[in-house]
Each structure stands twice: as C-alpha cells, then as structure tokens.
Amino acid sequence: PLATYAGWNLRATETGGTSELAGLLGSCIPFPRTRAERERNGDPRLSIQERYDSPEDYLGRYADAALKLVDEGLLLAEDLPFILKQGRERWAWATSRYDP
Q1: Please, is 31 exposed, middle or buried when counting C-beta atoms within 10 Å of its C-beta (0-12, 13-18, 19+)?
Q2: Which tens digit of pLDDT belongs to each residue from 36-75?
Q3: What's the pLDDT tens digit per position in 79-97?
Q4: Which residues contact 78 (CB under 8 A, 6 or more apart)?
Q5: Torsion angle, CA of 58/37/43/48, rounded to 10 degrees?
Q6: For a 10 Å CB count at each end of the chain, is N or C smaller?
C-alpha cells in the first residue's frame, strides 16, 4: 500500500458535527514519503521509503499481488495492463506530492 484507506470520512471540526460522517466515499491518507517527513509530522505509520527499497520493489510486489488475484479468479487477465498502469501512476502520485 501507499496510503491508509478508510470507507468513511469524518466531518471537519470547523464544520461541526464531528461525530457524524461526511459522506461515504471513503478516505485516502497517503503515507509519508520519507522517514524524515514521518518523524517531522509525528506520523506513526512507516513511510514509503521505509516500506519499499525502490520503485521497482513496489511495482514488483504490486504485479505479484495482481497476478495472484488472476490466479484466484478474482481479477481478469485482460485487466492486468490497466491495473499495472494504475500501480505506476499511484507510485508517481504518492512519491511526488508537494511538500510545503
């Protein structure tokens, strides 16, 4: 993974109703890119840098997981090219975010 995913969104404090859901589209909370970023922000989750040795490491694991889904009949082989393209795009997004 490159982020923490949740099936819900909580309302922001500024809008009130903080114990209520704000739609059911889900959340994507990206992992910090580096250990330094993680430590600076006090994020307890491992950074992308700490999880994967390289883009090739991530993409290899991603491809292996996709192939396993094909073997288990949970993903169509014809969808693999699109799925693998998504993996490359997600890596690029997660590792190139603007860092204020």
Answers
A1: buried
A2: 999 999 999 999 999 999 999 999 999 999 999 999 999 9
A3: 999 999 999 999 999 998 6
A4: none
A5: 0
A6: C
Alpha carbon 75 to its chain centroid, in Å, reads 19
Cα–Cα distance measured from residue 2 to residue 83, given in angstroms and rounded to the nearest whole number: 15
Task: Spell out a b/e string for 50-82, using b for 16 or more CB atoms within 10 Å of the CB, else e.
Answer: eebeeeeebbeebeeebeebeeeeebeeeeeee
- Looking at per-residue confidence, does 20 or 62 come out higher? 62
Tell how far CA 99 is from the center of its chain: 17
